[in-house]
Amino acid sequence: MRIEYFQLIDRILDLNLEEKTIKVEAQVPQESTIFEGHFPGYPIMPGVLLIESMAQTSGWLLLGLFKFERMPFLAAVKEAKMRGFVPPGELLTVEASLVHEGSGYAITEAKIKVGGKLRCNSTLTFSHVPFPHPDLRVHMDAVAKRIAFPQQAFQS
Amino acid sequence: MRGLVSGADPPPAAAIRIYLQYIKGLVMSSTFDQVATIIAETCDIPRDTITPDSHAIDDLGIDSLDFLDIAFAIDKAFGIKLPLEKWTQEVNDGKATTEQYFVLKNLCARIDELVAAKNAGT
């Protein structure tokens, strides 16, 4: 996880396009400038970044379902619950599943677990459009490679 | 004695027409009632201010993000997929007006069409 670059997802563990689910892992770093402010003497992951982690996880699921032809953008966050502190160094498992695919939008449910215990969950809404710029598509392809996006998922 | 028993005269054509209109009215009002309830609950708009002639955007002030919630609820309730992207494209291209899709009686007519198409397996 490189928080400062918004690279919150380290690796895709499982992507099931038939079941429309995804599981990823994300290692919270021991040190980050973010922890200097959040909070002095008591560093914890900001809740908004936990939500962003769930959004990025859901985003990879949607990118897979759309076969990288459309880009999802976070549109709404509902019932986000921070159920426990996430200090530096924790290994997060983030899971997401598709709840509904509408016309131009999609809804997922996502959760973060640490050591098998639920720390955070939310229902997320995304709008999605054809890639608005070719550079973005190139960037997402590069990130997909870095986080081991399973290209074979398209062949099953 | 004449009555609704076998052997009674068949109802006149006019009565059948009135009956069919009544049934159609029931179906339409059912769709509208469901949609109005969804809008009221999703957007916190008083139910009695929502009429078949209300324009979702211009009269009720529903923005595009709130309309996603409404679309989700409608998709779920009716088992359809409102073609929002197609409608938006048509409006942007000047091929349709927002009234055709976002005045509630018209929206309900589109929903009924989509439900009928789904039931017909098309």
List keywords for this structure.
heterodimer; A: about 160 residues; alpha+beta; six-stranded antiparallel sheet; 3 helices; 6 strands; about 25% helix; B: about 120 residues; mainly alpha; 5 helices; globular
Order of helices and strands of chain B: HHHHH
Radius of gyration of chain B: 18 Å
Largest sheet of chain A: 6 strands, antiparallel
Total count of helical runs of at least 4 residues of chain B: 5
Query: In what range is the share of β-strand residues of chain A?
Result: 35-45%
Oligomer: heterodimer
Reported for the largest beta sheet of chain B, the result is: none
Read across the widest sheet of chain A, the strand sequence of neighbours is 1-2-4-5-6-3
* Chain-averaged pLDDT of chain A: 95
Quick synopsis:
The complex is a heterodimer of chains A (156) and B (122). Chain A has 156 residues and is of the alpha+beta class.
Secondary structure: elements and pairs:
The complex is a heterodimer of chains A (156) and B (122).
Chain A: E1 11-16, E2 21-27, H1 33-37, H2 47-65, E3 70-82, E4 91-101, E5 105-114, E6 117-130, H3 134-146
Antiparallel strand pairs in A: 1-2, 2-4, 3-6, 4-5, 5-6
Chain B: H1 13-43, H2 64-78, H3 84-92, H4 98-102, H5 104-119
Helix pairs in contact in B: 1-2, 1-5
What does it look like?
- The complex is a heterodimer of chains A (156) and B (122).
- With 156 residues, chain A is α+β, with helices and mostly antiparallel strands.
- Chain A is built from three helices and six strands; from the N terminus they run E-E-H-H-E-E-E-E-H.
- Chain A has helices at residues 33-37, 47-65, 134-146; strands at 11-16, 21-27, 70-82, 91-101, 105-114, 117-130.
- Chain A has a six-stranded antiparallel β-sheet, covered by helices on one side.
- Chain A is globular, with a radius of gyration of 15 Å.
- Chain A starts with 10 loop residues before the first strand and ends in a 10-residue tail after the last helix.
- The mean pLDDT of chain A is 95.
- Chain B is mainly α and 122 residues long.
- Helix content of chain B is 62%, strand content 0%.
- In chain B, helix 1 (13-43) packs across helix 2 and helix 1 (13-43) packs across helix 5.
- Chain B contains five helices and no strands.
- The model of chain B has no long low-confidence stretch (mean pLDDT 87).
- The interface between A and B is medium-sized, with 11 and 14 residues.
